[in-house]
Fold:
Amino acid sequence: MAKPEIDDGIAWYLAAFWDLNGDRQLGAMGGAGPISFLALDRYAERQGVTDADDFARFSTIIRGLDGVFLKHLTEKAKRPKEKRRGKR
Structure:
């Protein structure tokens, strides 16, 4: 299957999400927590996102991606170990 073409604007948000993905705290039980507001704010400022509306859009999109990602991790952790091996 061919990779889909991704618009440059959307690709920027995806790259930002993956950059920020490693900047999250772990929960008490070792699970991944959400990307912090501070991480979003610092990343946006470094990337030149200073307008309030642009930051709101950035934050909404990244938090949306993060919510889907965390849901995926939760569902993956609930699967029996035998079914998790080799499947993503």
